[in-house]
Amino acid sequence: MPELDDMNVQMDASNLYTEEVVTDRKVGTIRVLNPITPEGEKDPARKPIYSGEVQIMTQVGALPIAFEIEADSLAEAVARYNDAAKEGVRKTVERLQEMRREAASKIVTPGSPGFGVPPAPGGRIQMP
Asked: How far is CA 40 from the centre of its chain?
């Protein structure tokens, strides 16, 4: 466990946002991060950040997916939600397939090292 004195938990006062959640109560949500100053006033020098959330059903239940929406306004974020959601789901599915391939390549079979059997000396197969 890291030492408490070594932890850096200082917030960045120059990068503060308030968060708003917008939903149509049907498809998903859009989170709007509005930039603010350290005093809590709106920061007009920075633009809001929009991110969407959607859930897809899988064999093991609902899988929440978050994605960025490139937009300059809430209306634009709503209009771009569909395409951004599809791209977010596509990237998530690709990543899950990649993780599945990685896991499959690590499958250990009986008699192989890592399955409770030490490796054969010299890496050669030995017959009993």
From this structure: 28
Sequence-distant (6+) residues with CB within 8 A of 79 are 71
Predicted TM-score of the model (pTM): 0.70
Per-residue confidence (pLDDT) for residue 29, from 0 to 100:
95
**Alpha helices by DSSP H, 64-124:** 74-105
Alpha helix locations (H) across the chain? Answer: 74-105
Tell me 42's DSSP state: B
Residue with tokens 């929440």: 64
What are the structural domain ranges in the chain? 12-107
Distance (Å, whole) CA 57 – CA 127? 49
Cβ(18)–Cβ(32) under 8 Å? Answer: no
